[in-house]
Structures are given as structure tokens and as C-alpha cells.
Amino acid sequence: VLKGISCFIVCVLGYGAMYEPIKTNSAIVVKKFGGTSVGSLERIANVAARVIADQKAGELPIVVASAMSGETNRLVKMANEVDPYYRGPAYDMLLASGEQVAISLLAMAIEKAGGKAVPLLAHQVGIQTDTIFSKARIVSIDTKKLLSYVEKGIVPVVAGFQGVTADDQITTLGRGGSDTTAVALAAAIGARECEIYTDVPAVFSADPRLVPRARELSRISFEEMMEMASLGSKVLHFRSVEIAAKYKINIHLRSSFEAREGTWVVSEDKMLENPVVSSVTHDPSTVVIKLYPVPEGVGFLADLFTQLAEKNIVVDIITQSFDDRGQRLNFSVPEEDLAQTELLLAKVVKKETSVEIMREMSKISVIGVGMKNHPGVAARFFQIFKKQEVPVHLVTTSDIKISAVVDKDNLKRVAEALHKEFDLDV
Ligand code: ADP
Ligand code: ASP
Ligand code: MG
Does 66 sit in the ligand 2 pocket, CB within 6 Å? Predict the structure, then answer.
């Protein structure tokens, strides 16, 4: 089947990437199964049966799996108990171990059910990354070995979330990064599509666990999905959507438990209509840091944000203001980067500046490409906070989104109200 297939061995993704256009391997489908989908031995057996059935129907599957649900959290907790400030090779090696268990069990289950499968860690495949531990980016994938298994009817079962540096250190791609492994493999191989099997049947107009009246979206554009992912919706890892958009890989998100169509993430020209707001998205774990008064001028800001960047801490919203006592600086970081941020602030900030850390914060956003052409969205957005009497700590906007940081306790109420206000309720 694979005769005539392109033989580009290495596809370079990521920074300053040179992209070799690859002919589509139209029968190959990358199938990624998330933590809940492989969360028990019974579920692993179901996944195995599904993969074999699809193979019998003519697909050439390449499987990517995450760690069994709860496992990565358990590993993070243990690491933090040893040293919450440590980030580096040992942390990534520990976190990557969950996927090793899942792919071994899944490969065994496929064999038990009569198929042929081989479990592969990132270093065995040749998924090379940069050296930014915990947030590594894929720089190249060697597709030769994968294709040779596919050619022989053997299902490669690849560990998601992990990579290997040029000098053989294990890295991880950031929480939720198995999606990115799957889409990057699909791009490198030129797969027909990348299926993401998960514990919800579709991408919804809001997280259905937060907003029960959320509706299923049958299609969503790369642009909106990227915005959702970057604003905290964990249904797809941000980098996976970025790679899909760049290499035009259609993502097909669907349920592991039901045979339903799910959601297609596609380019904007395939969208039928552009509602003003297509989703309400939240990031449940943001921390707001308030510094006051900071040294005047931009010198301090430049130094602070440079040092945060050097630690690979993603600063999200930044605001500054002045009063008669001086300059006030507020910014937000993800909760997982708080320990590193505090460590750095203790070194950089002088005694005369007070540091206030506001935990238990969430960011709530409305997103829609239709917003570009419709005035008044911000007005409707802030009216909801007024009606609900919810204080807003930070705000940020772009032409297709508005976000506000609120106390976690107010998140659900305001999310449901926004969802209703923008006519998204089922
Ligand atoms: P997996 O382990 O399969 O990767 P994740 O937990 O990472 O699954 O992602 C799926 C979860 O994403 C769902 O259980 C759901 O709670 C959450 N989610 C957040 N926003 C959305 C959304 N807009 N649509 C669907 N699910 C969402
Ligand atoms: N197991 C990893 C995590 O929990 C990767 C993933 O699930 O995609 O973050
Ligand atoms: Mg996930």
C-alpha cells in the first residue's frame, strides 16, 4: 500500500523550521487516545478492539497514547513533594514515565486481540525536541522507522507527550502535550487526518463540565481553536492546533466511548458561518501578581520580564498604572509556574515594593472571529459582570477575543451567564 510514498526521512517542525512538503499518505490515520480513554485495562482493551477494527476496514493506523488518567498528576505531586522549585531532566524523565506504561499495555492488548503492535518511546521513534524541559518543542521527527512498521501491518503505539534532545535527554512537551505528538506525527508523515479520541464527544461552545448547556460544534476554524487552546481550554493542546494549522492537518476530535462524528478542526474557508461569539473558554488556574510601587521607567519591566522569559515562564496579561505613590504593575502567570515566579521575584524585587499574590483566580474569555465586524461585544461582556456583581481583576482583548480574570468562586456563574448572553445555550 505504501508503494510510491514519499521518502522524506526527517520533517523539521517548530522554530525556524524548514518544511519539506510531503505527499499525503492517504491511508495513514494518526489516532491519539487521551488519559481517560486508556484509564483502565478494560478501556485499553476497547481501544485495542477499535484500532484493529479500523485497520481491518482499510486504515493504516499509527496510535499515540497518553498516560492512564490521573497518573501524570500523581507524578507531578511526588516531584513537588521532593522539590517544588526543581525543573530539569529528572522532572521530565519522571513525568514521561506514565506514557511508557500506557503504550506497553495498549500494545499488549492489541496483540492479545489478534493484531500486531509495537510500543515506541520518543527516542525510539526519533522525536527530537529542543532543551526546554517541561515545555519542549518538537524540532524533527524521523518517520522512517514508523513507516517501516506500518508497511508490515504492525501498529506503532507511540508514547505521547515526550521527546528527546540531541544529546539524549528525555523532555516533555507541556501538560496535555500528547495531542501535539499526534499532530506532529501526522504532519511529518503526511497522514490523511489526525483523530483525537477523548472523554467528551466533541469540542463544545464551552467546557461542558462548567457550562452544562454548552452545545457541540461540528466544525471549528484553526484560528478559533488556537485561541480557545491558548486561553485555557484543555480539550486540545495549543501547539497541536498551531502545527495543524501550519501543515493543514485536519483534526478530528471524537469520543473514545461512542461512535459519533465529533468535531472537525479545519481552515476558516471551510466554515459555513462565523457567529459573533462561538465559544466561552476558561482557564481555571491563573495567578495574579501585584507589585507596588515598582521603580519608575521601563528599565525594571524590561529586566523583570526578561528574567521571567529566561525561566520559560509564560506571562499572560500585563497592566500598569500610576498614582501619586508610584507605578503599579500587575501581571498573571499559570499556576504551575508560580513556584518559579516567586523564587525569581524574591531575587529581583527590592524591599520597598510590596508583592501581592492572588491565587485561586480564573480567566474567562469569549471568542469569535465574527467579533471583528461586530461592535458592542465588549459592552455586552462587561454588562454581565455588572449584573452578576463579579469583580474583574485584569482584562485583555484582541480582535477575536475578550478575557477577564475573576475569582475562581465566580467562574461558573459568570461563564453560564456569558454563554447565555451570546446565544450559545442549547
Ligand atoms: P485527554 O486526556 O483525552 O487529552 P483532556 O482532559 O486533556 O482529555 O481534555 C478533555 C477535556 O477538556 C474534557 O473532559 C472537558 O472537560 C475539557 N474541555 C474544556 N473545554 C472544552 C470544550 N470547549 N469542549 C470540550 N471539552 C472541553
Ligand atoms: N499525560 C500528559 C498530561 O497529563 C500528557 C497528555 O495527557 O496529553 O499532561
Ligand atoms: Mg489532553
Answer: yes
